[in-house]
Specification:
Elements lengths: L12 H9 L4 H11 L1 E3 H7 L5 H13 L3 E6 L5 E6 L1 H4 L2 H14 L3
Antiparallel strand pairs: 1-3, 2-3
Length: 109
């Protein structure tokens, strides 16, 4: 194994990527958006059953602030909001698919 004595973990690409996707539900939300392309808030809530409304809202805001998802609001009553992956978010999909493949190959059973 090669050690890089000059590597500052806090400034490396790995740490930056991790800061964008860390959290209990971020990767699950990104993967749901990848699988469904466009999804509404309540659909996400149904898929991610144990997530609270507050946690879902905060996680979606964080992903939107990091420009990983796009929030589209329709001016109607009742309000309609849809979420989809941005180009930046789509660029994370190969990483998530590799994690999914790794999990399938290494899960017990």
């Amino acid at each position: 194994m090669i050690k890089d004595e000059n590597c500052n973990f806090n400034e490396c690409g790995f740490n930056y990527t991790l800061s964008l996707i860390e959290g209990k539900y971020k990767m699950s939300i990104l993967y749901c958006l990848f699988r469904n392309q466009v999804i509404r808030y309540n659909e996400l809530k149904r898929i991610l059953k144990p997530i609270s409304f507050k946690t879902l809202t905060n996680t979606l805001r964080s992903l939107e602030n990091d420009k990983l998802i796009i929030r589209k609001e329709y001016p109607q009553i009742p309000p309609k909001v849809e979420y989809s992956l941005s180009k930046r978010g789509q660029s994370l999909i190969p990483i998530l698919e590799a994690m999914c493949e790794w999990g399938e190959n290494h899960k017990k059973g």
